[in-house]
Design brief:
With 229 residues, the protein is an alpha/beta fold. The protein has nine helices and eight strands. A five-stranded parallel sheet has the order 2-3-1-4-8. The chain has a three-stranded antiparallel sheet with strand order 6-5-7. Bound molecules: adenosine monophosphate (AMP).
Length: 229
């Protein structure tokens, strides 16, 4: 995957999928390629927890259990982020919306900015494989590159291929027990959004059990088409 950014009109894209589907990995690749801004509500909430804000204090225990943080808190952190100037080039929403209330609120937020959701990509994966995928993953603390104990190890153990940092981090909620709760939350509250967006003719389902590069190719084709339409 080349890091050359292609200039596009602003597009807003949603990546849907359970934990472990590859939303973060694919969002980062699209960010590099198209100059869109990855907005991960999980990252925003982890930032709030680390900063000890009121939202972070309220979210911390809920996230540790693998349940969904309240719509009010998530919408407040997202709205703050959308108000920052760098998102004008367009966004990739990763992990948001996760409930019908959030989907409706997102429509309203974008409409007020004279924008809309251009495409929703649902990453289709086998649930059974997700616990192993999520449980083994870790991230470079320097640049955010993702790795996995089994599926994607750095060339030199413990050292990031991309930036050379040796600070690797694991998320507290990436353990088998919490992942199971997160999968239940996904099916109960988020998967119904697939039909919501299908009914609006913005949904594309992409098989996402295969090679990361091939999946990225499929997503590139969708976004390139949007960008030039
Ligand atoms: P993620 O990084 O997307 O896997 O999210 C990690 C955790 O943050 C989730 O298990 C939830 O507890 C919380 N979270 C992230 N995004 C949302 C959201 N849109 N709605 C509710 N909770 C969220």
């Amino acid at each position: 995957m080349t890091a050359t950014a292609i200039k596009t009109r602003p597009v807003n894209l949603i990546l849907l999928g359970p934990p472990g589907a590859g939303k973060g990995t694919q969002a980062r690749m699209l960010q590099d390629r198209f100059g869109l801004v990855q907005l991960s509500t999980g990252d925003l909430l982890r930032g709030a927890v680390a900063a000890g804000t009121q939202a972070g204090l309220a979210a911390k225990a809920v996230m540790a259990r693998g349940e969904l943080v309240s719509d009010a808190i998530v919408l407040a952190v997202l709205k703050d982020r959308l108000d920052q100037p760098d998102v004008g080039t367009g966004t990739i929403l990763d992990g948001f919306p996760r409930t019908a209330v959030q989907a409706q609120a997102l429509d309203d937020l974008l409409a007020r900015r004279d924008q809309r959701i251009d495409a929703v990509i649902s990453l289709a994966v086998d649930d059974a494989a997700m616990v192993a995928r999520v449980s083994g993953r870790y991230t470079c603390g320097g640049c955010g590159e993702g790795y996995h104990d089994q599926f994607k190890q750095p060339k030199i153990a413990g050292r990031c291929d991309k930036c050379g940092s040796d600070k690797m981090t694991r998320r507290a909620d990436d353990n088998a027990e919490t992942v199971s709760t997160r999968l239940v939350a996904y099916h109960a509250q988020t998967a119904p959004l697939i039909d919501y967006y299908r009914a609006r003719s913005v949904l594309t389902e992409v098989p996402a059990m295969g090679d990361i590069g091939e999946i990225a190719g499929a997503l590139d084709a969708i976004v390139s088409k949007l960008a030039t339409s």
